Amino acid sequence: MIIDAHQHFWTTARTDYGWLTPELTGLYRDFQPADLAPLLAAHGVDGTVVVQAAPSEAETRYLLDLARDWPIARAVVGWVDMSAPNAEQSLEQLADNKLLRGVRPMIQDQPDRDWMLRPSVGAALRGVIQCGLTFDALVRPRHLPALQVLVDRHPELPVVIDHGGKPDIAAGAYGAWADDIRALSERPRVMCKLSGLLSEAGPRKTDADLRPYVDHLLACFGPARLMWGSDWPVLTEAGDYGGWYDQARRLVQGLSADEQAQVFGLTAAGFYGIEERS
Description:
By secondary structure, the chain is α/β, with parallel strands linked by helices. It has one domain (3-272): Metal-dependent hydrolases (TIM Barrel, Alpha-Beta Barrel). It has helices at 33-42, 57-69, 87-94, 119-130, 144-153, 175-185, 197-201, 207-221, 241-251, 257-272; strands spanning 3-7, 47-51, 73-78, 100-103, 134-137, 159-161, 190-194, 226-228. α3 (87-94) packs parallel to α4 and α5 runs parallel beside α6 (175-185). The longest helix has 16 residues, at 257-272. It is globular, with a radius of gyration of 17 Å. The chain starts with a strand and ends in a 6-residue tail after the last helix.
C-alpha cells in the first residue's frame, strides 16, 4: 500500500486561507480530489493523508466531509486553536469523526518561536494524547530547539516533523538543522516526513542537491520513522507530482524493497492508524 502522507485540498470560495492570495497565481484556484486522483493513479498511490491548510475548525470539518466522500483519503490532519481555553473540548468534538487522525497548528506562522511551549498549548497537547490523536509539527529550523523541549514535556505524544523541518536548501544551510534533527530523532516517538523539500530548494533541486538532506533524514530516523509525502498542490510551485515521486524513489533506492515500502506507505499507515477502506 503506497500512501501519500501529506497533501491538501482547498477552494478559493472559502475565506479562511489568509495566506492564499491572488498573487500566488499558480495556487490561487480550487484543488479538489478530481484534480489529484489521476496523479495518484498514474503512480500507484493507494491512499492519502489530507492535511489542513487554514487555521480554522470550519476548514477541518470541510476536509472531513471531503474525505468521507472520497475513499482514497485515509486520514485527515486538522486544526484547532491550541491556545484557546476550550481547545480540549474542540478536540473531543472533532475526534468523534474517526477520519481525524491528527492535528496541526501552523507553528511556522507564529512570530514567537517558543509559542508551542506556552502552558495553554501544553494543556491542548494533553488533550491530543487523550483523544488518541497525533501531532504534525509544521516548523522551520528556528523552531527545532523548542520542539525538542515540547517532545520531552510530552513523551507520550506521537509527533511527525513536516517537510523535514524545512531546511534552507536554497541557501545551502545544513549544520544547525542537521544537529537539531539528529537530536529530535533520539526521541523515539518522533517521526519525519520526506516532503516539501523542493519548495525549500530554490534552484538547488537536483538529486545531488537534495541527497545530503535526504541521507541525513534516513540516517537519523531510518525507514521505519520516515514517510514520503507530496505536499501537493503546494508542490506545483516547485515541481510536479510525478517528478517528485520519481526523485524521492531515486533518493532512497539504496534501501531494500521492504525499507522502501516503509517510507512509501507503511510508516504513514502505522503512524496515522490507516487501514483499508471498503
